[in-house]
Each structure stands twice: as C-alpha cells, then as structure tokens.
Design goal:
Elements: H1 9-13, H2 17-30, H3 34-41, H4 44-51, H5 57-62, H6 65-83, H7 87-109, H8 111-127, H9 132-135
Length: 137
C-alpha cells in the first residue's frame, strides 16, 4: 500500500511509489509563483510531507531562490554558447536528440505499465487532501 492508499499494479510495478509521488508534488510546486512556493516551504504541510518520507529535503531545496538563480545561469550560458557557435553546444544538441529518441523508445516499451501507474497515481493524488488543497487556493 502506498502513501495514498492505492494498491494493485502501481505498487507492484514500481519499486518506490513515493518517488513518483514526489515527482508529482515537485511538478505542481514548481509551477507556483515564488510567494506561494515560499508559503508552502514554511507550511505545516511541507513539514508533514517531509517527515512522512513523501518528499525529501532535496526537493524543497530545488524550489529555493538559489535554484532559480542556478537555472537562469544555465539558460544564459546555453544561449551564449549557441550565439557563439560553440562546439560544446553542438555536441549538446546532438546528445539531446539522442536523449529524445531513447525516451521515446522507453515510453513505447513501458507504455502499458506506465499508463496504469500514472492513472492510479493521478486518481489517488487528486483524491487525497495532502498538498492538493494548497495548490487549489
């Protein structure tokens, strides 16, 4: 049984269902405005989720102001490399094309199990009142 009480193929197929749940929560939180992120980081919900092992400290750190600066720094460096026709940027572009091809193959190979896990996870996630109420304010 996972955190949301879902049983069945999702918990049987996934070695760590909480890791998938953490990804869902991080995705939701990353879309919030900075004020709401800060409010969540200081909330009892964040403490409860961390103590329950649903999210880790690493996830909370990624939502910080420093993370935003790091992300912007990386984007600026990539743009500068692209503008100067850097060979490293060309290699990165080729690598990302290969990455997309591999992701498509993985998605095709595991699509049935992934679809089941995603549907169960989505249903349980939306049903539960943990941080969802916070996102819907």
């Amino acid at each position: 049984m996972n955190i949301f009480g879902a049983t069945g193929s999702m918990t049987n197929d996934l070695k760590n269902p909480n890791e998938l749940t953490e990804s869902y929560i991080y995705d939701e939180l990353s879309r919030l405005p900075d004020e709401r992120k800060k409010e969540f980081l200081e909330s009892q919900e964040a403490v409860a989720l961390e103590e329950g092992g649903i999210i880790s400290r690493k996830t909370l750190v990624r939502l910080s102001k420093e993370d935003d600066l790091s992300r912007r720094l990386k984007m600026a460096a990539l743009q500068l490399a692209k503008d100067s026709d850097d060979i490293l940027f060309t290699q990165l572009t080729k690598n990302r094309i290969k990455e997309r091809e591999l992701l498509e193959k993985i998605t095709a190979k595991y699509s049935m199990k992934a679809t089941q896990a995603a549907k169960l996870g989505q249903k349980a996630y939306l049903k539960q009142k943990l941080p969802v109420a916070f996102f819907r304010k």
